[in-house]
What we know:
The chain has helices at residues 2-13, 33-39, 148-156, 164-179, 186-199, 207-216, 226-238, 242-254, 258-268, 279-292, 316-326, 333-340, 345-358, 364-369, 382-393, 401-418, and strands at residues 42-52, 55-65, 73-77, 95-100, 108-110, 118-123, 129-133, 144-147, 300-301, 312-313. It is an alpha+beta fold.
Amino acid sequence: MLRRVLVALGLLCAVALPAPAQVDSTTWEDPTLAAAVLDADLIVLAEAAAVAKNGAAYKVLRTLKGPKRDGAVLAIRGLHHPELRERPALEQGDQSYLILRGKPEGEGFSLPTPTLGRFPTRLGGDGQPEVVMSFGGAETFVRLALPEKQFLQLLGGLIPGEQILAQRKEASAAARAVLAKPGDDPEATYVALRTLGLFAGRGDRELVPLVLRALAHEELRKRSLFQVRVAAARVLGKLSGKVCAQRLLALAQHDPHPAVRSVAASQLAGVLSDKGGSKAALHIARVLAQASREASAQPVTFADVEDPRTNQLPSPLEANLRALAALQSRDGVKIALSALESEDLDAIKAGLAYFTELKDPRLASAVATRMRGEKSGDAWVNSLFAETLQAMTGQKLGPKREAWLAWAREQAREQRKKD
Length: 419
């Protein structure tokens, strides 16, 4: 055992040891838990045998994904960022579930990011083992202590294999039971909704009244519990039908927290089977367009300025405009063009997102007209315009306004000849 630990510590010091997922800047974006599990080469329960300044040697106690490595000692990097912390925030003997990237049969691994991929275990207040975890993504800042059995159910529903459907069914059944009394424990309700958001499908119509009951609960309507409503919106987005669409539209319009408005709008197009031309789609588009006139263009962030995680949600304006484009609605054209004329970079990005999603080359001239002149102080935004125009037209003309306007004029001439 000692020899294996020394070998692992030696690997940590070796210059040639690859760290395929270790971040190379002082900021990063955490993936979602589901994405991290799917991308992982190895997932294990392991105990820290030794801790060094640039990582730790972990002895594998149990393998959950990948080739069986029980008993192996692995060198793990990416547990911290050296410019932000002197050494990893763990001690010898700590046990954690680790989501790892590297050669599955190798000895050197890293976490997806320093803030996602290590889930410590501990004894809860009832003396039973629990796991401190996060669902990652925009909500990576929400840390939860789950009973170990529940955590393993959740993880098992994400790891491809023979048992995945059984694990998903078991985890979903437990989540449904929690939602029978949604206001008793807001944290448990949040976990239940997030679980259903991972595993629910469009055919799970019996979930709709459970989610609506949670959204209607007085306790869960408090602004401070916005994460619960975000989770509920994600579940509605996995389902389908007019009832889900109406509730999401109400959240996108009226919820007091911008995170809920953003997520609700982002989910809207997916719940309608007929995204263009139906009465429901036309109604949603009109309401979203009206709401967009007053919507904030500021992205939704949860971290303070010193936090290295850059996770954020689209601004309510961007989420609305993307939904309008996904609904194939032209109600967003005037709003998006107005955003392109703004001096606010976030508003410009929201407007460009609409045209990128819509992909209508007939609107390229209107977008190009709003590019900045070469001597303008903010001409650098033209590179963003060029990316959108390329997505709309398939042309690669670079960031110069005149090149795109000339192309648009030529297209107009060709069209007149055809007419």
